[in-house]
User: Fold these one by one.
Assistant:
Number 1:
Amino acid sequence: MSMSDARGARERLVVIGGDAAGMSAASQARRLKGPDELEIVAFERGHFTSYSACGIPYWVGGDVPGRDRLIARTPEEHRARDIDLRLRTEVTELDLDRGRVRARDLDSGAESWTSYDKLVIATGARPIRPELPGMDAPGVHGVQTLDDGQALIDTLARARAGGRAVVVGAGYIGVEMAEAMINRGFEVTVVNRGEEPMATLDPDMGRLVHKAMEGLGITMVNDAEVTSLPVGDDGRARGVATADAEFPADVVVLGIGVRPETSLARAAGLPLGEYGGLLTDRSMRVRGQENVWAGGDCVEVLDLVSGQQRHVPLGTHANKHGQIIGANVGGDYATFPGVVGTAVSKVCDLEIARTGLREKDARRAGLRFEAVTIESTSRAGYYPNASPMTVKMLAELRTGRLLGVQIVGREGAGKRVDIAAVALTAGLTVEQMTALDLGYAPPFSPVWDPVLVAARKAAARIRAAG
Amino acid sequence: MSMSDARGARERLVVIGGDAAGMSAASQARRLKGPDELEIVAFERGHFTSYSACGIPYWVGGDVPGRDRLIARTPEEHRARDIDLRLRTEVTELDLDRGRVRARDLDSGAESWTSYDKLVIATGARPIRPELPGMDAPGVHGVQTLDDGQALIDTLARARAGGRAVVVGAGYIGVEMAEAMINRGFEVTVVNRGEEPMATLDPDMGRLVHKAMEGLGITMVNDAEVTSLPVGDDGRARGVATADAEFPADVVVLGIGVRPETSLARAAGLPLGEYGGLLTDRSMRVRGQENVWAGGDCVEVLDLVSGQQRHVPLGTHANKHGQIIGANVGGDYATFPGVVGTAVSKVCDLEIARTGLREKDARRAGLRFEAVTIESTSRAGYYPNASPMTVKMLAELRTGRLLGVQIVGREGAGKRVDIAAVALTAGLTVEQMTALDLGYAPPFSPVWDPVLVAARKAAARIRAAG
């Protein structure tokens, strides 16, 4: 039986993907329109809805006591709000001309079409898995979904105490998983293709992360392309091989990053950008489409600093997109102006943050700039536990406009990047930033906040450059 | 002998006041002009230069091991940079017509005139000391200067362990001194004239501070006007009396606040504002004067949100003023646009922050507004040590412009106010703020940062108000 047979006069919203963007959109639409006006059908191919994928490293590492803590809203809670949620049901085709989607029940294999008046695509991202020998062996783990996290935890439970973990990739997921493995008592090696860890920073700042990670007892291997994942006699992964070396492992964690999951959208001819993400307008409506919206990890977003599209898979954006889509679908009005590229992470007590453009981003955007780096402290130097902090700041030549900030330090370093995130959004110059009235008291900041120190140096450099 | 006899062809800069604003101005001027071009004479009536008065509570409380840690630059260091620094020398008269100041050596009593080409007034603030019986008794302590701090520490050393401290005043200094007394092992009572502590917050937010202080074991007495400081048979303070009660004390600490120290300026006919502070232009030059600058706690500043003048005695502003004055005196160019009124403080693990306008400030400025308050957490709810945080936000009707933010919480609450401080500086609306790209990861923030949650609620309220 086709689902579309059941349609009455009310409109039907179909949502593809039951995590942050999709279910936020569904919930917000439901808040604005009751079940008598709007039917909502949501398809999710996994077992869970509305969970914090960002929290998986902390669950695996033991900071979060159980999987259910990561679930913001259960399927039952969604259904109680008259959202017809279909778990373990994968949408396999979009038929834009006839306004319908084909979905397959993953357990029974049954397929059926469901028609829509309005469609939300929130298919998320898929982890990058290079096609290497051993990639699918037991003991090799991604950490994208709750199922992934549980599988990894099961492997860790089998491993001996003091075992060896190799993390492939040194971006946010990689460094967070390195911390998780340390917290689980493993000897940790991070194998990284790039020159330094945290390629979302400039290499000079990544170098600080590298040194700090070594200080935490993590073995950091840079400039290392993985060639295979050797498998032991028992068929399980036994290490990670590069051209030069082999790193033995009881468990291998992949933290290589993700790409937009847009195969459905591509097959349907929807517009995709340079990074393979869906392209939308400011209301998060897919470009060229009247009744199709998209948000979360499957879309590209406007970078307000460079003026270019980017792919920024991050839960906080997915939630915003969902709210905005839900508002528009529900007859209200909201827009997503874009991002400035803020991200913050930590490895044990090391905090890493960035916003705006790196040097290479600025060059790619055709911008000329000055870059300065300063050392300061998180609190007044005389106050207990004042910890060192390095701030790098980029400003455009001539205009003096702030282009980006990167911060590496300890407690108090990470969220300081928000100062720069707001300044970037507002288009402030570094000269204007020197006068910012930031919170000062000895337990919170030196009398010149580190961001102000960087702004002063950047402003002086811009003036000197003329 | 008059100092002016020694003048040659080079210009002479005279600085009155050797703390943050005065010595920053002197140092910056010296950076720009060598001793062959510019002679610099600085008068300071105390024993110290360039010290952090904001750090005194932490020195008294024991977090900072010694007085010298609070001194950013010693007299010897200033002198080594060719600044003719005269300690224990009080300027007693400004003669603007003849371009000279009269100064008295406080040890010898000798007076002499010193002429200037350029003058910087950085006379700071003086603590408010109501004229009450017992106010000058031993055991009653202000905490404005390093000498004050040492005297208090001496009294505390004499007091028995587990003694009683009464703090008069519940502003920043009062609550910080309450923490210091707790850290020294005293039973602490805070006697406060206002309805709630922290009058720089709205009373509803001050109420949260009140409750939290009680939770820390501090006895909080509000709506209590001090009538006298009773003195014991030994001539030392033995308590604090109000109309209704007497609070026994082994030590009394005054944390009542400060007023601009502008008696010299007033006598010389310089322009003072509503709060008794000097009025300057954007270059920190005293209004109507060609060669006289002023900065730090003795000036009033423009509040960028209300458009009115305010007195905001704070080391971070004093340092900025000094840099700006020094740049202008030294032939460079810099301006101080004004403040948004950011302040942050803590009592033990309670963090208190505010920026922009309180409800009564907004009314006084003729602004109509909506105010919202939200509860959130410092980290993702499932992450260890996520602590509750209350954020209050004011937005102007019609325009939706952010007017102010107040935050009370634990770790991570205080410096979050910087997000709002930058938004106020940039004139963002709360609707714009809902899209801010703030740093998100579970150890740093919920997926919706508390400031975003407040902005969303405020924006909805503004829309509803039409």
Note: Chain A has three domains: 3-126+260-329, 140-256, 350-465.
Number 2:
Amino acid sequence: MDADKLIEIENELLSSYSKGGGVNHIGGPSLPSRESISEILYTIESLMFPGFQSDENIDQCILKYRTSEKLNQLFRKLYQEIKKATCLKNAPDKRASCQDCSASAKVKTEEFITNLTKVRDKILLDADAALSGDPAASSMEEVILSYPGMKAVTIHRIAHEFYKLKIPLIPRMMSEYAHSATGIDIHPGAEIGDYFFIDHGTGVVIGETTVIGSNVKIYQGVTLGALSVKKEEANVKRHPTIEDNVTIYAGATILGGDTVVGKNSTIGGNVWIVKSVEPNSKIYNKPIDYSIKN
Amino acid sequence: MDADKLIEIENELLSSYSKGGGVNHIGGPSLPSRESISEILYTIESLMFPGFQSDENIDQCILKYRTSEKLNQLFRKLYQEIKKATCLKNAPDKRASCQDCSASAKVKTEEFITNLTKVRDKILLDADAALSGDPAASSMEEVILSYPGMKAVTIHRIAHEFYKLKIPLIPRMMSEYAHSATGIDIHPGAEIGDYFFIDHGTGVVIGETTVIGSNVKIYQGVTLGALSVKKEEANVKRHPTIEDNVTIYAGATILGGDTVVGKNSTIGGNVWIVKSVEPNSKIYNKPIDYSIKN
Amino acid sequence: MDADKLIEIENELLSSYSKGGGVNHIGGPSLPSRESISEILYTIESLMFPGFQSDENIDQCILKYRTSEKLNQLFRKLYQEIKKATCLKNAPDKRASCQDCSASAKVKTEEFITNLTKVRDKILLDADAALSGDPAASSMEEVILSYPGMKAVTIHRIAHEFYKLKIPLIPRMMSEYAHSATGIDIHPGAEIGDYFFIDHGTGVVIGETTVIGSNVKIYQGVTLGALSVKKEEANVKRHPTIEDNVTIYAGATILGGDTVVGKNSTIGGNVWIVKSVEPNSKIYNKPIDYSIKN
Amino acid sequence: MDADKLIEIENELLSSYSKGGGVNHIGGPSLPSRESISEILYTIESLMFPGFQSDENIDQCILKYRTSEKLNQLFRKLYQEIKKATCLKNAPDKRASCQDCSASAKVKTEEFITNLTKVRDKILLDADAALSGDPAASSMEEVILSYPGMKAVTIHRIAHEFYKLKIPLIPRMMSEYAHSATGIDIHPGAEIGDYFFIDHGTGVVIGETTVIGSNVKIYQGVTLGALSVKKEEANVKRHPTIEDNVTIYAGATILGGDTVVGKNSTIGGNVWIVKSVEPNSKIYNKPIDYSIKN
Amino acid sequence: MDADKLIEIENELLSSYSKGGGVNHIGGPSLPSRESISEILYTIESLMFPGFQSDENIDQCILKYRTSEKLNQLFRKLYQEIKKATCLKNAPDKRASCQDCSASAKVKTEEFITNLTKVRDKILLDADAALSGDPAASSMEEVILSYPGMKAVTIHRIAHEFYKLKIPLIPRMMSEYAHSATGIDIHPGAEIGDYFFIDHGTGVVIGETTVIGSNVKIYQGVTLGALSVKKEEANVKRHPTIEDNVTIYAGATILGGDTVVGKNSTIGGNVWIVKSVEPNSKIYNKPIDYSIKN
Amino acid sequence: MDADKLIEIENELLSSYSKGGGVNHIGGPSLPSRESISEILYTIESLMFPGFQSDENIDQCILKYRTSEKLNQLFRKLYQEIKKATCLKNAPDKRASCQDCSASAKVKTEEFITNLTKVRDKILLDADAALSGDPAASSMEEVILSYPGMKAVTIHRIAHEFYKLKIPLIPRMMSEYAHSATGIDIHPGAEIGDYFFIDHGTGVVIGETTVIGSNVKIYQGVTLGALSVKKEEANVKRHPTIEDNVTIYAGATILGGDTVVGKNSTIGGNVWIVKSVEPNSKIYNKPIDYSIKN
């Protein structure tokens, strides 16, 4: 390839960058990066469950300093990413000196950090639910180290805090991180009660306006979704409500913002639900006839 | 374990390496490595969307040099991996000096690089489709940074270029990279039109000879597959054709090389299709009766 | 945030660590770490398929030393993680000096390493099955480098060895590693015969007490699960038996510890099975009527 | 090399490890590592001169958290290395549970950290001395970033604190780190007054019991050493005293514990001094006759 | 250490940062970092001597792209560091938007890059001088890979270019990098002719206004320095001139801006020279009488 | 800088690569790299002193496997670098297939590895010498971790083995590594007896044909060099012989291949010796008169 050709290709690409409103951020402050978001989640998980992620040998004497180090580190990294995410709404040349976004990022970082122990308490309840809900689970350690549902719910509880703080981009980047690692796709907007347990979990989708009660258990491939996906309906409740003590087996689909699954109900595998279900219901598909040829 | 026992185990393993035709490549040139393929995709993504992947602070003055640096780096890495993939067909002792594979790798690398801006243009259309197709999507940045469907389609558009260039191994390694990150499994051979959007996406499977029109939208768990999987049919069209403006909801299965879903059709969730469907159809499963026990 | 507030948050978190039985391991020996388990799997894979993972240029002269290096490294790392996992049952202050766990870890490491070539032989049969079972597969290299089913089965064969050795935590950490990378969730307890092939695989779930014969092929979204999930039934066979030469298509669900799919049977896509199936059966869902509106 | 030969070599080496009292620490707690000491120095330097070592972008809002993070990190790392260094005096099997060494390490870490700002103040005076003492120095930044004397004195001021706390090994590891980076070898025991400046510095040696006043300037190749090096004299003052405002030019050698260079003196290049020198002296070698042959 | 005490220490440190004009750069753009300067030198060396630094396997086909990649990378990194160094003279709040410094950095980066081949040509002459000047040197490869004098002179030739471009900080950071690696301290201002060779080199000091002719050879411990070091004389020639074909043996000291060592002269080991020397002189110390006691 | 100018610069550089015999190795096998040599030395040091370099926690149970792992790793890395160094003498196109160099590299690697314990034994004697020779040394650990002389002599003992095996490049790369880290420059050819101790060491130069007896101690700045440096004398003994039990103080210079310092002698600081010295001599400079001006 001669040099002229390569330069032509390069120029083509460069002019493509500035075409049509563009999608890149050259010259403005960087976007929050996937790497930073993943590091932030790692730090939060390590504050939640010290000693679980790596081999570091923490004795009691050091625990206080290690915790303080991680908290301050978390503050710094969060502040920086939140500031970037918040400031994207401004024109590029206004971002560097934007005092509003700095101030707002500081406040929101503080709010998140203030709630850390509360979030941890909730996550411990989820771990309890997994341990008591899966016959194969033999210890709390096993649940935390190897249950994808546990990982997805942990990250959701964190992402949901940022969602409530109305921080752009970051909650979705977190939920997508969890999705990539576990196959479980929970929109950070979903409101989920205590003792939530997802088993196996691949293919689970839980939409933005879903509301889930306490002590709910769901299996792989369950969708809690919307009936219609019109842009103009972005602000209404589009996803179902699941009340306390409901179990939903693998592959079930529950759709619609007005659909309520009443408390203590059981939804069988592959059941398709678009209307509300009374409390205490047990809903199973009638067996599909299949043909057997020997 | 005494030293003799360990040596015995080692010898067992060593002799196993050379047994039965073997599957390893000792002494010959290396295979393309998963690490290199992942680096190459990272570089291409960063050429597509500068400023999106990491924190690097690129000002306008530097953009040209940064782009040129990445383009040349991409050339080098691609050339090396393509050369390895191409040369595997030769006997190991012929590979080092194989001028044909060098020449061929160079030509194919040039062809890919030449099309880079065209591929980028296509990917931007996909991003538009995602932004307008999902009520929850609030910005182009969010789509690029956190939509698994966007990631899978981006990598598919890249892998498909290598597929068209008939390069062995590399296109499949790329599609498997995307599959691992997103749960979306698109064979690099699939031909996909503009404005393609996959929402959530876990469990989506799109086969090698699938043909997809413009402005198609599909949801998680959709399979576009083959009816039969006989080795001798590897070269015929085994997967369906989806025409323009079709929407396919979650969990639908469409099978067969002669199956055509006509334009403007909607395929409902979990529908199972093995025959062609007229344009403008709306196909939904009749509700399965389920038994309710309160 | 003033310093007092941050200290308050920190103290809250610190006291939360020691509350209610706790879930952390401060002061005791570390847990096996996810990073170590992933490195161990990488080393085993590289012993299984030398030359496949990275670019290292191994000539015949060096192969013996490289293999010996990796074997000894594997011994060291395995021993350390097994010792940690084994010793968790003891009170923290008894762990450091626990000679029993050292001895037991040594014996179990030796047993695993002794079987390495046998495990490799089994994995090569799986690769054969993939190569002959998928019309799109064009070479053994492609299967090993880019088939998620191959990766999941390889890791399962390894994790199952640790399961048989009754080592806590580690087998499940390995299977979850595979799940995260491939979307395929095989409990390390499952007994799987030779020539096993999973195509695409996202969403596959195979339970702990599943028994699978030789030459079985399954597709994405297949569940081999339990009918009931009561903690007190953890020790009975809860998952089905699949006999030799069975093919199970995408999305099928087979449940129950007494359910046997007889040999040479084919289970169609999305079929739901909770009772045993005779040998040589071909089972397909009767087509669901769907409504078409043009 | 056949396997037996390699095992023989290995066994030779293994038995050599345990021979003659040995010099290794297998089975006991690790020694302080060179890597840790270098990281600790990096952290301290970055607390001394924030913004000088790397590219991190610290705004005022974040400075407090960043500083707190580093301080806590420093505490943790220091504590761990000091504990290891302190505990070496015990028999290996007594180390793990040694409460005395933990307590002592904690106290000494606290003492060092408490003095951090005082040490910084002293180092800033040294930087002033360099800036005013070298005509080529054009800014404080240049002095801190590129003056080897500055680096050596900074590390000495730190190492000397650990020396005063009677911590084994660590002070000497720090001074050797400085020696390796700059060619300047200052024993951590040396007592050095304010405004100390070493120019160029390669080959400078300053012994353990040297005492140096304020405002002293020395050049490359200067030795402040001992006259005799008998092991039994390890506890007496063996190295010279240099009083305030003395300048010592390149290559001068000043030896002996009773040798005092009186204040305001200048010692010329290559001068060899083994007896005390009055205050206000200017001492130069009489020119050596050299023969010139044209 | 209780939390209050640590906060007190932290506040002490924080207030120390802002005291007395300070020496840190919080809130302004970062300083050029030592890490970046070392990477830049690595890149330049690898452009000078491709294939010498790492294991990368460059074939002819790739050389062009690799070179272009490195050149563009070099441009980017240089531009960024030069911009930082240039902008330090401005008040912190004026730096971010300083167009002058961007423009100036761009021009100076271009000038350096334009001269790259000329600098390389000069360095090759130095390598020739080393190869022919040292009986122990057996190949050009050995000289480039293992001669400290070669490394120091290479870096000096590079640093001198930046010195001529009047870029602050960076030239001195480069020369200190060389000093740290080799013990050879050459001020970037020194003007040095072709075919320059330093053997062993530890302790060599060459001052800012030194002028050295062609084909000069010097040994370890040689000082080419100033007689007096008054700040007000910073702009006059303070260091000696060494004419063509001069050899200076180990430990010799030559001082003063008016001191000229005439061409073809030889200066013996440890000779001390403060006055000019005629061309063609051979100057050796008369032997010092030493006392021998058997 | 416009694209044409950059291409011009690039072409200039590219054509410079091939000019005048060239000094680069494009297209041929790589040179031994500095990074590899440094890793090899790290591995050897860690085999010599297990537990000294990093934090790895080796218990007795694992020591055997760790040692075997390192030995095999060392074999592999050494073989590869020795093969590269050996094959440089061939024309580039003959290197890849050169069986002679493979065979020779294998034999030489084996020879080095066979002597490992012998070399370790010698190094332990040097450590003893340091411990007993320096009043400031308080433990074997301190000597190994922080004495530059110890590091330089350790690396010399290793490099000398490769020198004796007549391997090109590698011995000198090792000695230069030591020189860079310690300021001590020992040519790998020097023959050095047991119990050798260098204190401080910056500036020490020991030439290729130096012969040193047992129990010799030298200080910083000592040169054991050649009188004349003519290329044609490369093969004769050019450097002095130092017999048993000699001590040489700082800055002394001893030159010439016929110069012998007889056993039990002491050479004072800065003494300049070009003729042989009787055994049992004590040689000190007569004090130089210096002028004192108060």
Note: Residues 11 and 17 of chain E are 10 Å apart (CA to CA).
